[in-house]
Amino acid sequence: MKNILFGFIALLILSSSYAQKKNLVQTPVVEPSFPVRGFCIAAPTVSGVDPFVKFIAEELAPRKINVLILRVDFNYQYQTHPELRDSIALSNADVKKLVAVCKQNSIRLIPQINLLGHQSWAETTYNLLRAYPQFDETPHVKMPEKYVWPNPDGLYCRSYCPLHPDVHKIVFDIVDELCDAFETDAFHAGMDEVFYLGDDKCPRCGGHDKAELFANEVRTIRDHLALKKRNLWIWGDRLIDGKTTGIGMWEGSFNYTHRAIDMIPKDVTICDWHYERPDKTPVYFAMKGFKVITCPWRNPAVGQVQYQDMIRFRKESTPEMKENFQGMMQTVWSDAESFLKGYYSKTPATGNEINTPWNCFRTIFVK
């Protein structure tokens, strides 16, 4: 209860006048001194590598973007586990093109594979659980012919069982291979929106504390990465009490994983995403001792307030707290090709069309 009140009070103290500002989109003050000026998107397809390399050089670099997270998942020609590759996937040579342009422009390149949750989407089970169905946390839940939400099974995305004795050997093989290919010192494990965890019917997880299960998986991944001096990044939603704060079940947790915030190592970097309101949860993470990055998506007005909040948090913090507020990262939840099509479109945006990830990106990261 003390921790819940601590977080809730922090949110109240630092709440902004967003309700009055939400219709204003102004050019923000440029703050190049953010330790992180980031961009997160799905890795390009094979045919999209060269256009994306051009985008990095001509659009990300001039905006002083210094961190690029590419959601790769199974879009790579893994040698350790070829059974996990997508049918068409990036080669090592394709990845080296991305590595080279990022090095040339002093951009830290970080790959992502969704771990724990997001092992399916809608009617589709993804490669890990297709190849290794024994890792499924909820094998009794059958994939629907047509997915709808809500549904009787509470199915959003499938998870792997974190206590299966063989899962980490497979997962860490591809994590290590991908990190080596990207020549990176960090890895993003996703770990957002985990609804299936500690299922009562799981012979290994059933009855376990969900916060402990989540924290143990974070620690297991973090400790493995640390063997090669790599840092773990995750999304922050499972560490927020969605009910007490009113943030809800998507941007916060309703299955009690939020208590894991006091059980995981402080060197895990938190990517704190809020897309419809500029909630002040960076303060909560920073006061818990974590480095935190604010992540907008498609609403320029929300992104602008979040950007100004981050400037203020850093400016008004104690020296001990300032560096916990690491900066901003634009997130894009489409394939790279669709984003570039919208980004380079010559058609003026009007009405609701202004709420796009490319408009949000241009608003918060000006050239």
Describe the structure in your own words.
- The protein is α/β, with parallel strands linked by helices and 367 residues long.
- The chain has 13 helices and 10 strands.
- The protein has an 8-stranded parallel β-barrel, surrounded by 6 helices. It has a two-stranded antiparallel ribbon with strand order 4-5.
- The model is unreliable at 1-28 (pLDDT under 50).
Defining traits:
alpha/beta, TIM Barrel, 8-stranded parallel barrel, two-stranded antiparallel sheet, 10 strands, 35% helix, disordered N terminus
Topology at a glance:
Layout: H1 2-13, H2 18-21, E1 36-42, H3 49-60, E2 67-71, H4 92-104, E3 108-115, E4 120-121, E5 124-125, H5 127-131, H6 167-182, E6 186-190, H7 210-226, E7 231-235, H8 242-245, E8 269-273, H9 281-287, E9 292-295, H10 300-316, H11 319-322, E10 325-331, H12 336-343, H13 357-364
Parallel strand pairs: 1-2, 1-10, 2-3, 3-6, 6-7, 7-8, 8-9, 9-10
Antiparallel strand pairs: 4-5
Helix pairs in contact: 3-4, 10-13
